[in-house]
Amino acid sequence: MGWTLDSREGQVQSSSHRNPVSGMRNSVLSWQRWERTMAEQEKIAEQDVLLAATPVRDDRTPDDRAPDDGRRALLRLASVMDRIGTNRSHKVILAVVIFGAFFDVIEQNTVGIVGPSLKDQWGVSSAGIGFLASATFGAMYIGAALGGWLSDLKGRKTMFNFNLALYSIGALVCALAPNFPVLVIGRVIVGLGLGGEFVVGLALLAEMTSTKFRSTAVGLLQVGAGGLGNPAAYLFGFVIVGVIGPDLPLWLGGPDASWRWVFALLCLPALLVLYTRRHMPETPRYLLSKGRIAEANRSLSVLASDRLNPRGLLVTNYLPENMRLAQADVRWTEILRGRLGRNSAVLGACTASLFGAQFVLLTFWPTLLVDQGYEIATSLWFTMVIFTGAVAGALVSSVLNARFRRRPTIAVAAALSCLSALAFAFLANGAVAILVLGFLFEFFSWWANCSISTWCPELYPTRVRAFGIGVISNLGMIGGALLPPLAGALLSSLGPVALLSLVGAMCAVVLVAVPFGPETFGRSLEELHDGN
To answer: Where in the cell is it found (predicted)?
Structure first.
């Protein structure tokens, strides 16, 4: 006879086992689980006493207030998440989200990778290549807002899986496209998935992690996505098209099909859905916001178990299932009103300005270097070296945001970005100065960018968090679309100093806007929006 524990009743029940040794082992394991469960319940009871004895300061507007049961549940959830801390479950979830975002960034760069092949084989003009890229980014704009909105309605896990599957399907359409119009359709499908994926992934990580680990997790997402994804995209393209492509056997399509394999191999993230759909839990914060307490308890128990697929999971009632929770009406316009409206204004100004500045130099680094007399090949090599600063900046940001307050961290990074852009304008004479000052700008701007990405999900409540992130992401893309033409005009009429001065001015906008946002360091998401 072996023994199992009913997690709800605390009863030990018998069941037959063919192997007595296995039965004895299961009995010991069950007893250990029971002891852990009882310890958790004792901690929860102690926390109830503390919460009941703690005076409540209610300085929120009537629309923000929740019934006492709801407030206690929210504060308890924050405490439980912080007590669970960071274990193997969180690290696997982080790795899954980074993996998806890494392929997102590679997928964004594929038009540039396959462009020359499309020109040679299909006679697509440069304008046609530009239209293909615009179709992708236009769809990303829609996907970010739509994906965030649906994520707040249907759940983080659901939309994470949907977006992964969607852009994988789009990549398959591109790989099999018989003509240019079908290729455009494929890129639109890809863009819709890409736009939603990063937004949902950012919200998922922010809600799945403890207060202490939240900033580190978001920072590592930026490292794995933009920091490593951009250089990996061109390395991937070089290997598939440049190295393997010329010798591709006929049964795989021959050399002319190498560009199709760039798209086909980017269907691999679809395999990730098979894992996440079965094992990754929904975020407890989202479930509680919808009043699904039993599911939130199960999700918390999975996270606490140190495994995403634990055997014989004992569900601990971290949150009493008889709590009365008021269901807040989700009004998407609330991110434009009151304190959330101010948060949106601050984040929008920071994101549009900084992303615009980064995209200007992403576009014009090689041109600036050629104008200084360097060969095109040399300018591209210099640009690659300069962009290593982005990886370093993202890594440093993930460390600093775990230890220092948000507003000073972003302000310092923005100020140093501004100074490094101006220093490049006036002091970049010679190869060493170009590489050092260019590296410093990418380092500081990515430090600022990753810090803003950490700040963003903290400035919205769970009910509209993903939608808010989507809107801010779109404002960043608008900045990236509008500033390069202005920068190009300045470069043509006034020279590189004017272009770099524009970049410095955009970084200064971030420095001015940041003090108007709230400080969030060291505070749980529930304290910031749903508790006191």
So the answer is: Cell membrane
Strand locations in 317-382 (E) = none
Number of C-beta neighbours around residue 257 at 10 A: 16
Domains of the chain by range and CATH? 1-50 (no CATH), 89-282 (1.20.1250.20), 333-532 (1.20.1250.20)
CA–CA separation, 264 and 462 (whole Å): 36
Distance from C-alpha of 69 to C-alpha of 193, rounded to nearest angstrom: 38
* CA dihedral of 396, 397, 398, 403, whole degrees rounded to 10: 100
CA distance 114 to 117: 5
Q: Would you say 69 and 324 are in contact if contact means Cβ atoms under 8 Å apart?
A: yes
pLDDT digits (tens, 9 = 90+) for 75-129: 788 888 888 888 898 999 998 888 888 888 888 878 777 888 888 888 888 778 8
Q: Round the average pLDDT of the chain to a whole number and report it.
A: 79
Q: At 17, is the pLDDT very low, low, confident or very high (cuts 50, 70, 90)?
A: very low
Residues contacting residue 95 through CB under 8 Å, at least 6 positions apart: none
Beta-carbon contacts of residue 411 (< 8 Å; ≥ 6 apart): 510, 511, 514, 515
How far lies 519's CA from each of 206, 408, 458, in Å? 16, 9, 10
Q: Tell me, letter by letter, the H, E, C secondary structure of 307-332.
A: CCCCCCCCCCCCCCCCCCCCCCCCCH
Tell how far CA 253 is from the center of its chain: 36
For residue 11, what are the β-bridge partners?
6
The answer to whether the predicted template modeling score (pTM) of the entire model surpasses 0.70 is yes
pLDDT at 448: 93
Give dist(CA 325, CA 502) in Å, integer: 50
Q: What is the 8-class DSSP label of residue 225?
A: I
Gyration radius (Cα) of the chain, Å: 25
Nearest CA among 198, 283, 95, 210 for reference residue 453? 198
Residues 187 and 135: beta-carbon distance below 8 Å: yes
Q: Alpha-carbon distance 82 to 210, whole Å? A: 5
The shares of helix, strand and coil residues in the chain, as percent rounded to the nearest 5, are 80, 0, 20
Compute the distance between CA of residue 195 and CA of residue 137 in angstroms, rounded to an integer.
Answer: 8
pLDDT at position 415 is 95
HSE of 250, CA atoms in CB hemisphere, 13 A: 0
